[in-house]
Predict the structure.
Amino acid sequence: MAIDSSETLPGQRGPADHERRTQILQVADELFRVHGYRKTSVTDIAKAIGVSSAYLYRFFDSKQAIGEAVCAMALSSMGEAVSAVAERDVSATQRLRDMLQTLLSEGMRLFLKERRLHDIIVVSIENQWAVTEEHNNTVSEAIEKIVADGRESGEFERKTPLDEVCMAIRITAAAYAHPVLLSRLGDTDEMETKLSAVTNLILRSLAP
């Protein structure tokens, strides 16, 4: 995972571009992947770096703050991919298909192939960390743009309130971007088949 130390991260202290902060996040990311978030302590991270736990608290308020920073960076790749799809110069219909496919592909990569990231995302959802809410907002904004563009182009119906349509799509698509729900959808081929069926149903409901 690329670490952007210039980003303002949840619960951080001191200068955002400090090289020690970057090191803390890199080491925490590695330990979370090996041992899982729940089994990794601030002491473990400090020992791996060769500093005291007190020193780490100069940069982050708590273990959760470190976890939120790592979680934010993990989710940012999915959010950026979804936002990029929403901006493509193709039909809204194609963008909606591509966005749902992107959610599935990124979800499988983050939550199933990298199991320890699955663990930290579950923790973030269970504890309602702000980073997950920000991620949900990013996905919702992408959906709203695509649907609004589709209405403007005449691809989608305009009678149903926009917020109602976007909420329904977000809820329907949640299974493909949620670590626990995604793991219950079967193997890759089965997931793709289910996604195709869901996408076709959504598009039929949006037809003018």
Summary: Confidence is low (pLDDT under 50) at residues 1-7. The first helix runs from residue 19 to 35.
